[in-house]
Each structure stands twice: as C-alpha cells, then as structure tokens.
Design a protein that fits this description.
heterodimer; A: alpha+beta; Butyryl-Coa Dehydrogenase, subunit A, domain 1; Butyryl-CoA Dehydrogenase, subunit A, domain 2; Butyryl-CoA Dehydrogenase, subunit A, domain 3; B: alpha+beta; 3 domains
Chain lengths: 409, 369
C-alpha cells in the first residue's frame, strides 16, 4: 500500500543524526575545507566512540547490525539513505571521512567467505578508529572498471600485487594512518577479462603498498582521496576474497551488483547537500521578507519564487526516486534501473540546486563566509563518483531498451 | 512506513483501466483529434467502469466505494495514457458530482447525486477557469454578491468541459475577493438559468476532442440553496489540490504514451545500419524520459497520499502539477524529436501528445480524483 510516512521511531532516530550534523560537523565544516589535508582527529574519535556506544551508523558500514531503531527487518537500505541524507546535510566530506569499514567493508561483505568477514571486519567494533577503503580506479580507466590492469600473481603461499590505483576514498587513512585495510581489485588472468578480476584485502602498512599522493580536490576536501602504488606487494593467499577460480559467472558481476546498494547512498549524499543549500536559501528569503507563494498561478510568480520552487521540487523528486530504489532492495526486488535513475537524477539535480543557491544569494552566496559555495563544490562529486551521470544513463538506457552492454555502449 | 507497492485492488484497477485505455481509447484518439468528436459508444463503455457512479453512496444508488486520491491518480494516469481529451470527457461528471459528494449539504447530495448512479453517462461539469492570462485559482474575478436571500453572479469563465450538454454547472466565484482560496465558493447553476450564456465551442491547440466552452454570467441570480455546502461553504483549496493531482496524473499518462512510442520506434528505426536506439544520443533522451516519468509519478502520488490522509496538500499538489506541466512538455517534445521528421507527420501520434501536453500549463480544475 502506497505510503510516504516515516514512523516516529525513525524520525527520532533521524533527529539524532541531525544533531550529529549540526553539532559535530557544521562547526568544523569550513575549517576542514580550508585546510584540506589536516585531519579532524577529535571528530574521528567522537564519531568512532559514538558509533561504538550507540548504534549510530555512518556510511555503508555493513559490518554492523542493522539499525536497531529500525525495528522492522529489511529496512536497512531505506534507513541507510535516510541517515546519509541527514549526515550529508551536515557535511558530505566529513561523512565520507568518518571512520568505518566503508567501501572496503562492502566488498568484503559482498565477496568474502563467512570466515573472512569475521577476520577482516571485527576490528571495526573495537580499539582505535579505523578505516576500510576500496581501490579499483586506475590512471588509465575510470568508468570501464573491467579494464583493470593491476595484476595479482600467485607465488607460493602469496599473491604478489603490482599496479597503480587512484581515487581511493579514505585510502590514506585505511592504508597508512590506521589499522585498516584496502580492498584492491586486480586481475589473476588478463586473458580471461572480467571473470579474472578479483578483490584482495591488503592490510595497512603492508610492505610494497604505498600512498604516493593525496589529491587536492574541488570539494569534499575533508575526505582523503589517495593514489596508491602496489610494487611487488605480497599478501597471504587467504586474502583473496571468495574463490580464486576464474568462472564465467559471479565474481566481478556480483561486485557490480553492489552498486545497486551504493548508488542510492550516493544519491542520498547529494540530497543531503542539496537540502542544506535549500534550507539556507529558504531561511534567507524568510529573513529578507521575500515570499514564496504556493498556489498562485505560475504566471504570477517572481523569478526567485520560480527558482526556489524548482529547487524544492527537484530535490523532492530525487529523494522519492532514492527512497524507492532503497525500498526495492529492502523488499528483495531487483533495482539496478531504479538505483541508476535515483543516482542520475540526484547527481544532476543537486548540482543545479546548489549552483542556483549560490546565484540566488548574490555576493553573499559567492563568499567563503558562508557554506553555500562549499556545498556547490561538494555537490558536484555526486554526479561523478559511483558511476558518472553518463554511465548511469547508459545503464538506464540498456534496461529500458532491453539491450546488452554490447548493443548499447 | 514507506511503501511504493500498490494494493492488490489498485493493481487490478490499473490493469483493467490500462487495458481499456490501450485497446479502446488509444485507437479512437487520432480520429477524435481530427474530427473533434468522441464516439458515444466509447463514452458509454467507459461509464461502465464506474469512475463516477462507483463513488456515489449506496443510498443514492451508487457503488458506495471509498474515494482514494491515490487510486484516482492511478485511474487518471491510465486514461491519460489512452487519450487525455477522452479521459477528461469521461471524468468530467466528477467535476460536479464529487464536490457535492464531498462538501455538499444533505439536500444537495440528495438532489443531485442520484443522476450519477445510473447506467448511462450523465454529463455534468464545473466552471473554474477564466479567460485572462493572469488567471489565478485563488483570485477569481467571477463574483458572487449576496442579494437578499440569494446571490448574484457576474463575470466570465472558460474551458468549461461539456457545458452545452450538462443540465447543471458548478460555478466557482469569489464571495470575498480578499480571502484568496477561502473566499471562493461554488454555486450550482442550471444551464438555462437567466443570465447564463454559453458561447460557441472553444478551439484549442490540443485537447481537441474535449468540448469546452466559454460561459458568461450577467446578473445571474441564484438562491441560497445553490451555494455548495450551504452556509458552511467549501474548502476550495482542497478541491483544487484534488484537481492538480488528477491533471498531473493524466500528464504522466501522456508522458508514458510518448515514451513507449518513441522507445519502440527507436528500436525499429535504423540509421547507418543499426537501430537508432543503440546510439547514445537517442538512448540518453529515452533514459531521461523514463526518469522524468517516474519522478513525476512519485511526486503526485505523494500529494495524493497527503489528500488521502486528510491533510493540506496544496504545496505538494501545486509543485507536482507544475512539475508535470514542464516535464510533460519536455518528454512529449522528445517523443517528436526521437521520431525526427516522422514525428512531425500526423500519421504518428507523438505530435498530438505534444499539443495535448502543452495544455497542462494552461488548464486548472478540469479533472478530479
């Protein structure tokens, strides 16, 4: 039965996330943006202990139990997008830099054996703050992730990894600044194509793995984006997640399926940033006594009213598409199409919403005194990572046309 | 608790109305667009679905079904998928019956609802819009001035569907122009009442099969019992929210029609030896159409849900309807574009959908859920 209502326990849970956003993220937001590579260690500590003490979850942390406040089972994905929006309203960069198993953990959960899940993920429940990261992109490819050139070669009791990975979110924290790990995607048989690409867990500070660069970015500066070189990096055999066997089915394909869960999350990140901008503009217009008149003929609206309403409705459209994609996953429905729709819509809509917010506020919007210009910079990444706008449009195109990747590429 | 699943009943309604729209309304759409006439047999058949009679209380001979804006939106979308004009014609009696059902006095309900419970299509309508560029629902210029026990109505209306064949017309007018939506009331006026002039049928860019009329009121006197809801009046804002949801849903139906047609065409039509759908330039247009359809539908469902919860859905329905007015234009325009030169030829329906879709920016209040 169609229902758009969030129940009281979910709402009170979201209030808690909102408080984290408001009191722990916003106060350091500007500072973390201005000092890109300075780590907010106090924030990390607070988030880590908050996560241990309660069941506050940040990010795609599948190593923990589903949100206890959720009550009903199979709501994990919906609750995930809701909490993500709430936290990215605070700061999207800090959200991404929060210590947890991250995308590395997601890969372990997707491809690992039960023993591997236990072995690699239990660290996130104890001790000091830790990060998990995933390394897939290389200098020579981005969207066509089957073009992996990093190799993993069997040598006795070890795999030897060689290659260069870039755009690895939280890579520095996972590889060198905590007792975390990096899941690196490498091919065990280049001639086999996609089925030959496997995920390997490389522990922090493993000899042969080196962070060679942390990128300077347009936005989400609180989050480190690392370039990592693997030079004869030796890891134990049982660090290969899942089976070493090169099969036609499974493996890489399963990993692509994790996008079904992560794309709605990225859409929700965008929506959080967009809502921050929208809330700011709404409050500003109110202070300036600029009315926004719902219900009057669109032909009688001012340009500002039209712009504001357009921002508002685009954000809500993106939000509903995102909720639907998450809900489908929770109810066991295949959602690749809907996940890409949510991601494509939210990425673009919020890019435009935040750009419009800067415009509407005039000189104030362009100034670094307030956060609106930062949100415009932060927003843009959501139309790029976890599949660019264009990649998602191709996926949608294939689904609606019933085309294979050979027919539409 | 968030849920995007239709109930079993809603799925059945969607499937049966959808099949009717696809198999019977659609083939009639182009001939109706050319001739301006809808076959009476088709209207009679649509009536059998009980879009109006189903909601009439059992004591007046109707189906006594509970009204749901979400279900109404599902029906409106399917009818819009078949043809907006035919859909608007079929649903037009609701414009008169549903406000009386929802907000009328006991006397008004007893007097007027029975006629909608029968087996035959009962034409009826409402006059909402006015022929001005700055027409605004909340600033009606048609006035109703108190005159002794009754009212005197003055002013001009337009886009009144089926006005020439309806026995009575529900005419909205400002009783207090300073109060916005709250100052608007409805008046049940017999078509032949003194002071009511119905002019020639309007000629529009699209929605051609739908017979609409201008209507002029010159010192039209009605009794106090003509005022919808009697002394307590009506919630005009809510009626218009219901209308926005219905129109938005029909808009999504048109968008879906254009999308399906363009998609199928693009898979058949070849250029440079391959189907044009295999080109990103075309596939991306189709993907964008698909996103906009789903986005628009979810927005209007949310507004419908608010209505069903009895809440004020002004903002949600307003934003959803305006969204559809823009996106339906964009999507149907893309429908023409994907077909290229063929899209411009009246042999294909896409140009008709573009003309019909542009109407959503102009029309208000001529459908309801």
């Amino acid at each position: 039965m169609i229902d758009f209502e969030l129940e009281p326990q979910v709402l009170s849970r979201l209030q808690m996330y909102h408080a984290v956003s408001e009191h722990m993220m916003r106060p350091i937001s500007r500072d973390c943006d201005e000092h890109e590579h300075t780590k907010p260690t106090q924030f990390y500590e607070s988030m880590w202990s908050a996560s241990a003490a309660s069941d506050i979850q940040v990010g795609n942390d599948k190593s923990k139990k589903p949100d206890a406040g959720a009550a009903a089972p199979r709501r994990a994905n919906l609750l995930s997008v809701l909490s993500t929006e709430e936290l990215c309203w605070g700061d999207a960069g800090l959200y991404l830099s929060t210590p947890n198993s991250g995308l590395g953990g997601a890969a372990v959960m997707a491809a690992g054996t039960p023993e591997q899940k236990e072995r690699f993920l239990k660290r996130f429940k104890e001790g000091k703050p830790k990060w998990g990261a995933m390394a897939i992109t290389e200098p020579g490819f981005g969207s066509d992730s089957s073009a992996v050139t990093t190799t993993a070669t069997r040598d006795g009791d070890h795999w030897v990894i060689n290659g260069t990975k870039i755009f690895c979110t939280a890579g520095e924290m996972a590889a060198e600044k905590s007792e975390g790990f990096v899941v690196v995607w490498a091919t065990v048989d280049k001639s086999a194509g996609r089925p030959g690409i496997k995920p390997f867990v490389v522990e922090h500070n493993t000899s042969g793995m080196q962070v060679v660069r942390v990128e300077n970015k347009l936005g989400i500066r609180a989050s480190d984006t690392a370039a990592i070189v693997f030079d004869n990096c030796r890891i134990p055999l049982d660090h290969l997640l899942g089976s070493a066997e090169v099969r036609k089915e499974g493996g890489f394909k399963d990993v692509m399926a994790t996008f079904d869960a992560t794309r709605p999350i990225v859409a929700a990140m965008a929506i959080g940033v967009g809502r921050a901008a929208l809330d700011f503009v709404r409050e500003f217009l109110k202070q300036q006594n600029v009315p926004v008149r719902y219900g009057v003929s669109p032909r009688r609206l001012t340009a500002v009213e039209r712009d504001f309403m357009e921002m508002e409705v685009q954000l809500q459209a993106a939000r509903l598409l995102t909720w639907r994609a998450a809900w489908m996953l929770d109810t066991g429905k295949r959602n690749s199409l809907e996940a890409s729709m949510a991601k494509a819509k939210a990425g673009l809509a919020v890019t435009l919403i935040t750009q419009k917010a800067v415009e509407l506020l005039g000189p104030l919007g362009y100034s670094r005194k307030i956060l609106v210009e930062k949100w415009m910079r932060d927003a843009k990444i959501n139309d790029i990572f976890e599949g660019t706008q264009q990649i998602n449009m191709i996926i949608i195109g294939r689904r609606i046309l019933n085309y294979s990747s050979k027919e539409l590429n | 608790m968030i849920d995007f699943e239709l109930s079993e009943e809603q799925q059945m309604i969607r499937d049966s109305v959808g099949a009717f729209a696809r198999e019977e309304i659609r083939p009639a759409a182009r001939p109706a667009d050319e001739s301006g006439a809808i076959p009476a047999a088709l209207i009679a058949k649509a009536w059998q679905f009980g879009f109006v009679s189903g909601a009439i209380p059992e004591k007046f001979g109707g189906g006594g079904d509970a009204r749901s804006a979400v279900t109404g939106a599902i029906v409106a979308e399917e009818l819009g998928f078949g043809d907006v004009s035919i859909g608007l014609h079929v649903l037009a009696p609701r414009l008169f019956a549903f406000p009386i059902l929802e907000m009328g006095t006991d006397e008004q309900r007893a007097k007027y609802l029975k006629r909608f419970a029968g087996a035959d299509f009962a034409a009826a309508t409402a006059a909402v819009m006015e022929p001005r560029f700055d027409f605004d629902l909340s600033a009606q210029q048609v006035s109703a001035k108190r005159d002794g026990a009754g009212y005197i109505l003055n002013g001009g209306k337009c886009y009144v569907p089926l006005a020439a064949e309806s026995d009575s017309i529900l005419i909205y007018a400002a009783t207090d122009a300073s109060k916005g939506f709250a100052g608007v009331d409805g008046f049940i006026v017999p078509r032949g009442a003194a002071g009511v002039t119905i002019s020639e049928r309007e000629k529009n860019m699209g929605l051609k099969p739908l017979a609409t009329y201008e209507l002029t009121l010159k010192d039209c006197r009605v009794g106090a019992d003509a005022r919808l809801g009697g002394d307590r009046g009506i919630d005009f804002s809510r009626l218009m929210s219901e209308s926005r949801v219905a129109l938005a849903a029909m808009g999504v139906g048109v968008m879906n029609a254009a999308f399906e047609y363009a998609r199928d065409y693009a898979k058949e039509r070849k250029a440079f030896g391959v189907p044009i759908a295999t080109k990103q330039a075309i596939a991306f247009i189709l993907a964008d159409m698909a996103i906009e359809i789903d986005a628009a539908r979810l927005l209007l469902w949310e507004a419908a849900y608010e209505l069903d919860k009895g809440r004020d859905a002004l903002k949600a329905s307003y934003l959803a309807k305006n969204y559809v007015a823009q996106s339906a234009l964009k999507v149907t325009d893309n429908g023409v574009q994907v077909l290229g030169g063929h899209g411009y030829i009246r042999e294909h329906p896409v140009e008709m959908w573009l003309r019909n879709a542009r109407g959503f920016a102009a029309i208000e209040g001529i459908a309801t859920v």
